[in-house]
Amino acid sequence: MYWIILFVAGLLEVVWAFYMKRSEGFTLLVPSLVTVAAMIASGVLLSFSMRVLPLGTAYTVWTGIGAVGSFILGVVILGEPASTMRLLAGTLIVSGILMMKLAST
User: Fold this and answer.
1) Which of 59, 88, 91, 105 has the fewest C-beta atoms under 10 angstroms from its C-beta?
2) The domain containing residue 41 runs over which residues?
3) Per residue in 23-36, pLDDT tens?
4) Total count of domains within the chain
């Protein structure tokens, strides 16, 4: 259950990062509100997952999901470059997330 909560917290991190980009420096109201709401919800869920999961594992997985998810959205939706080096970096982050999960079970 706590892993699912952590995963949702990570997805909400992707949401706030994406909408922060869309807010154009917090100058647009709706994207700014979505950003703040997703930040709060993500932090609350991360905190809840840390009741059981180790700090280092929870935080690393949370930031990893946010980083990789934001990278994917940037490439797919915003047309950011998907160079070989960026793809390799994303792959290494996912590998680290999986290793943290395996090390925690």
Assistant:
1) 105
2) 2-104
3) 999 999 999 999 99
4) 1
